[in-house]
Amino acid sequence: MRSRFLVPLLVLAVAVAAQTPAKKYNPPRMADGHPDLQGTYDAATLTPLERRSGTPLVMTKEEAAKQEALAVAVKQQGDKSIDGDRGAPPKGGDGSPGPAGNVGGYNTGWLDTGSTYNVVDGQKRASIIIDPPDGRTPPLLPGRKAGESAYNFNIVGFLQAAINARPRPTSDQTESNDPGLERTPGAYDDPEARPLGERCLIGFGSTSGPPMLPNYFYNNNHQIVQTADRVMILTEMVHDARIVRMNAQHLPKNIRLWLGDSVGHWEGDTLVVDTTNFTDKTAFRGSTPDLHVIERFTREDAHTLLYRFTIDDPKTWTKPWTGEYSWPESKGPIYEYACHEGNYAMKDILKGARIREKEQAAKVGSK
CA–CA separation, 347 vs 136, rounded Å? Predict the structure, then answer.
């Protein structure tokens, strides 16, 4: 008789087990009882901020494996030695993908673009944005202009295009129209008119945020140091350090900071960081100083932090939008990012602008 019930009982047991929720991770805790989020994390990923229209959030294992293998192959190809006797690129670059139209820059051996798509809940993600459901930023309000969206692209496609770019003509061949040096009033008159990222004052691509995003280039590490009343988030790119004041009030509205004013509190085991008081010097994708960012940091397991953010600027987008991606633990240390030590680029940029002005004035005078 017992055999009559053996199979049904096994089926029932499997069904009950499948319905039983996974045991919630209990993270290590600080002396105050809150989760210990401290550690170094690597945010490098192939997953872009936005995904192509009409594509699902979750990638199939096959598609993810295909794209990840392509990324490895592209990097290996880009790491190959280049010809030391190659000709110089034309003035202003040849217009192909790469730094400044391929006038010169890092090869892929210097880049850390990530090698895998981000994993959340065991699923490979095709975009960081999860709301709106289409994985795209909401429409801009009338009159608003999208800001700098550098590094928001498919890195595999970008690297592949750069490597497969048409052969560069040598410097004695036809020059380009030099579009990168078009005169913009004031752009090259004052070092403070140049972007903060170019001046190595803060990281480019919103690496330190908020929101804190991958830059799809290099130096994607973050380190969290935590006490009962302060949380410090150090970003490797340009060694930016955000100080989150716990259970505090925001600064007066007349005090504005490049990275905003971050105030934190705990909701269960999640650190919630509320940031306001931005300036117009660090506009995120065209946002205004009224930008409001809420971030959530949660330990998923002993080696992974889940980072989620919500963007709200009623003067820029038609509605708030949300993204999330995981930060795997990094075993290595964060090294100093000494961006401008011994860097003569700024002086040369301004000097070049003065030389060009003289050349243009001489042409006008000769007519």
Answer: 39
Other C-beta atoms lying within 10 Å of the C-beta of residue 193: 13
Percent of the chain clearing pLDDT 90 (strictly above): 52
Q: Residue 180: which pLDDT band, with cuts at 50, 70 and 90?
A: very low
Q: Report d(CA 205, CA 133) in Å as an integer.
A: 23
Of 302, 214, 215, 265, the C-alpha closest to 29 is 302
- The pair of structure tokens assigned to 132 is 């709106």
Integer Cα distance of 267 and 8 in angstroms: 43
Task: With 0.70 as the threshold, say if the pTM is over it.
Answer: yes
- Give the three-state DSSP class for 221: strand
Residue 156 has pLDDT above 80, yes or no: no
Question: Measuring CA to CA, which residue among 281, 317, 275 is closest to residue 294?
Answer: 275
Taking residue 359's Cβ as centre, other Cβ atoms within 10 Å add up to 10
Q: Residue 254 has what DSSP assignment?
A: T
pLDDT at 97 over 80: no
Q: Which residues contact 125 (CB under 8 A, 6 or more apart)?
A: 47, 57, 58, 59, 117, 118, 119, 325
Question: Nearest CA to 196 among 242, 148, 156, 231?
Answer: 148
Cα separation, 326 vs 212, in Å, equals 12
- What distance in Å separates the CA atoms of residue 160 and residue 47, rounded to the nearest whole number? 16
Q: Which residue has the tokens 């550690």?
A: 39
